[in-house]
Write a structure and sequence with these properties.
Low-confidence stretches: none
Helix content: over 70%
Structural class: mainly alpha
Oligomer: single chain
Number of helices: 1
């Protein structure tokens, strides 16, 4: 093999490595973004459940305090 062929092989190898790295980084970034979005959705659902629980506890507390004052 002569010099131009070797440099061509080096260039092809470098381009393939950079392409592979960019593919892996892009895929990893998408997976991480999807996982974070899923966690945010779960936190939103949990927050909604706590809001309902807070409303229920507040209603029970109000009913108990009103019951003690009426007696």
């Amino acid at each position: 093999m002569n010099d131009p062929q070797i440099w061509t092989l080096i260039g092809v190898f470098a381009a393939a490595m950079l392409g592979g790295f960019s593919l892996v980084i892009t895929t990893t970034s998408r997976v991480i973004r999807a996982e974070i979005t899923g966690m945010n959705a779960r936190f939103d659902a949990l927050e909604k459940r706590f809001d309902h629980l807070d409303r229920d506890v507040q209603g029970i507390t109000d009913r108990m305090w009103r019951g003690e004052r009426d007696a």
